[in-house]
## 1
Amino acid sequence: MIRLDKVSKKFGTGVFGLSDVTFSVDKGEFVFLVGPTGSGKTTIFKLLIREVLPTEGSIIVNDWDVVKLPKHKIPHLRKKVGVVFQDLKLLFDRTITENISLPLEVAGINQAEARRKTEEILSQVGLISHKDKFPIQLSGGELQRVAIARALVLSPDILLADEPTGNLDPATSWEIIKLLSDINEKGTTIIMATHNTDIVKSLSKRVIELEKGRVVHDGKHEGHKTKEKKEESKNLPE
Ligand SMILES: Nc1ncnc2c1ncn2[C@@H]1O[C@H](COP(=O)(O)OP(=O)(O)O)[C@@H](O)[C@H]1O
Ligand SMILES: [Mg+2]
């Protein structure tokens, strides 16, 4: 359902955001994308929704060749791939309900159906009691839930979550992970970018590890192997 083949992305500045990245993600998988800041996690997400184009390589999402996708088909791709951005991108002058229903409005869904879908998503993410509040009245974990709800409201096949626990305390982070696992169990494919090693270590999910734009590990988390890798990379020059 997702396939990157020998993908490289060189930015105008000459920086390689990604070099020769190859991996596939099957329908229904939950994958952690890990690596330090600057290793290329967000760039992979941007490539998957055609926000940027690769310098080399091919990208397949569902049956679309993302690189060759005609401009008018980009909205179709983005309906199928929901994204929770690192900076959430919520509208602070709109209520929680309005934020979540915005993608439905843009997609031209009729009002009754939009209301039904928004209520359903609000209860799925546990925000019904906050539906008429504004973002400024919510906690960090609740805002993360709003962003997740907005990314899910068009029922995408794939959810990309960019460091959704980045600014949260451990207990709240676990609640977000629980929510994402539940969403995955209902069938949505999930790729979650994170550098929270505690979370990755305690779940036996597939981990794709990036270092300086390259995939350095891809597989189920195995305690001591990852530790060895850490020891090795400690000795590498920056
Ligand atoms: N628009 C851009 N212009 C120039 N360099 C970029 C741009 N976006 C990302 N990069 C560079 O690409 C590399 C990977 O960035 P990014 O994908 O944001 O990493 P991560 O999300 O893992 O922190 C970094 O070196 C970053 O500075
Ligand atoms: Mg990032």
Note: The pocket of adenosine-5'-diphosphate (ligand 1) is lined by residues 11, 13, 15, 17, 35, 37-43 (CB under 6 Å).
## 2
Amino acid sequence: MSQEIVLRTTNLGKRYKNRWAVEDVNLEIHRGDVFGFLGPNGAGKSTTIRMILSLIKPTTGSVELFGHRLETEREKALAKVAGIVEKPDFYLYLSAFRNMEIAGALTLGRAPGKKRIMDSMALVGLQDRADDRVKTYSHGMKQRLGIAQALLCNPDLIVLDEPTNGLDPQGMKEVRELIAQLSHEHGITVFLSSHLLNEVEQVATRMAIINKGKLVVQGSVEELLLSRAKRIILNVEPQKKALAVLKKLKRVENPTLDSTGIIANVETKDIPDVVVRLVAAKCRVFSVKPQRSLEEYFLSVTEVE
Ligand SMILES: Nc1ncnc2c1ncn2[C@@H]1O[C@H](COP(=O)(O)OP(=O)(O)O)[C@@H](O)[C@H]1O
Ligand SMILES: [Mg+2]
């Protein structure tokens, strides 16, 4: 079954003077994805997001949202899209509620009703702070208020540029949980950028890595990790018997037992055979996971040549 593509960029590029900030970027985001757009500072994340949200014009290529081309059908393309680039701006001396009214009027063309505002604020856990001035908000609360504003237009796709940037670990966790909630409970497709590896690993289902304006790789987070991993962790019972089976297999190197399970070097293409052998020996295989962290992988693809 083919999945609906909610966002597609084709050969998307942006040149400033004679430098390409973004070059030939082809992205595909499916409905239901939490898509992580990972790259170091200056890689081209914000520039790509600005083009997706139609805030700047691409030098090359095109953006399609929900099957509508941004260039020719801007209104339809953006109808179900909300986004925040870099950090949201507020009127600090006005209440959060009033800020929501103003933001709503700007995006919807009319002031949203009280219920709508409070629903959005409840979604990000700020319903009890609606009457407080934004000045009194913590950085994390402002970030969540920004997301509440974005939710006012009832989006199917939300685009967030480094939503956890500058937050403390607790604030980051709250935003991550909010993103997961938007995805799972409200069926909103999420596109978020980050320069933090473990963040994407924790929250995203699919991801792309951008470096120096170019896409390095894109795919499901699990598959990407697995396909790059040589070292795997096997959760299998009984362990001693499994270890004996693995030791006899030529394509399995250095199987050893540790607290996380059996660790061994196995190439991805050999994993199915290894599993078959274990099963044939009446071992029960619960999981096969890459031991390699996304961090190691990210560093390997973004390394300076
Ligand atoms: N308005 C601009 N004029 C010139 N260069 C820009 C402009 N905006 C971004 N750039 C350059 O494009 C590159 C990508 O920037 P950006 O998209 O902001 O990266 P990221 O968001 O990944 O940190 C950087 O080298 C940056 O200096
Ligand atoms: Mg940026």
Note: The CA atoms of residues 165 and 238 lie 45 Å apart.
